[in-house]
Amino acid sequence: MLNGLVQASRLSAPDRVAALLAEQGEALGARNVTIYLIDHDQTTLVPVTRQGAPVREPLPVASTIAGRCFQDLRLLEVDQGRRVWVPLLDGLERLGVAQLEFAGVEDRAENELLMQFASLVAEIVLAKQSYGDLFHVARRRQPMSLAAEIAWTLLPPLTVGTERLVISCVIAPTYEVGGDSFDYAVDGDRARFAVFDAMGHGLDAGLLATVAVAAYRNSRRQGLELPDTVRVIDEAVGATFGPERFVTGVLADLDLNSGRLSWYSAGHPAPLLLRAGRVVKTLSSDPGLPLGLGWSGKAEPTPEQLEPGDRLLLYTDGVVEARSPSGEFFGAARLADVARRQEADRRPVPETMRRVMHAILEHQAGELQDDATAMLVEWRGHGVHDSNMKE
């Protein structure tokens, strides 16, 4: 069945995927298969149904079985096993959930096969979304600005996970974001990651961030080390926009064998270090100028030794400067406390970050006045093997 699904999907357009899954699901004993994709705000699971199928309603993440499946990354059964919810995962990147409905449990496939089916479904969705707009449109609950369109096209997946590392990010406001961005690359024994905050708002800020991220990727792919990467980004932003526009950022390299971190701040808030469920310090360095204001001739990275299980929290100023209706800042201490409490509850890293962003939005009554981005990086240690996705 799995091989048949792969073969059948090769020449299928995105709008054909829902029907294809229903057909192939019969081999699992399922009389119906429905996929639900998570919306950009990560509050609602949106159904993608085949033509002629019954209409399905979107499901809130906060109060449904489907939402629990999405949050906890685990298979859930209801109606005495006749309905099964399975997370759609690409590694640790959460795409949504799949619901499989069975007439009875006698001919139902084993849970392990259902999980394998869901993994393959996730891969098909990822592959097909590059060739059509259906999945992108399904995830949108309101119109998206041009600046946000550019920003989301530029971003990598929100979450990546390996045996030694997890990186998970959130960004808001999802439909109006412009100047914030992030990027990462995990290759061999090295992880490189960065968070950027471009001056201004809207499309102008989005174009600034686009040049900064493109220069960052180009430098990485040329094999440049961190100091030269900073120089290249600075020159690219300055040459394109002149001396009055700039981008702040934190750029970091992490050795996945030793846990040795090298990082550089270009006029940006310093990351927080969480260890054993508490904030042990704010990383300190002598920050350089924002990118685009002129190369000073050197960019000395600051070293930091991580311990297995350490988490780094990178963020833009829109996170800590988010104001409540009474004028109270969200602040770095509150940010750290929210992340710490989610870690204490042993939430999966992407769920921790989803809740962090929702806490920021709730603090500002749902209306951010500036872009807000956060990145959580967890180093699990050298040679760690952990099959439990929740850890």
Distance between the termini: 31 Å
Kindly report the average pLDDT value. 89
Uncertain segments are 385-391
Biggest beta sheet attributes:
6 strands, antiparallel
**Share in β-strands:** 25-35%
Number of helices: 11
Tell how many strands the DSSP assignment holds. Answer: 17
**What structural category arises from helix and sheet content?**
alpha+beta
User: What is the helix/strand order?
Assistant: HHEEEHEEEHHHEEEEHHEEEEEEHHHE
Overall outline: globular
Radius of gyration: 22 Å
- Lateral strand order in the biggest sheet: 3-2-1-6-5-4
> What portion of residues is helical?
25-40%
Task: Describe the model.
The chain has helices at 2-9, 17-25, 65-72, 111-128, 134-139, 146-154, 202-221, 226-241, 317-320, 331-344, 349-363, and strands at residues 30-38, 44-48, 59-60, 76-78, 83-90, 93-102, 159-161, 165-172, 180-187, 190-198, 247-255, 260-266, 272-275, 278-282, 302-305, 311-315, 372-379. A hairpin with a 2-residue loop joins strand 5 (83-90) and strand 6 (93-102). The strands form 3 sheets. The protein has a 6-stranded antiparallel sheet with strand order 3-2-1-6-5-4, sandwiched between helices. It has a 6-stranded antiparallel sheet with strand order 7-8-17-16-13-14. Residues 385-391 have low confidence and may be disordered. It starts with a helix and ends in a 12-residue tail after the last strand. The chain has 11 helices and 17 strands. By secondary structure, the protein is α+β, with helices and mostly antiparallel strands. Helix 10 (331-344) packs antiparallel against helix 11 (349-363). The protein is globular.
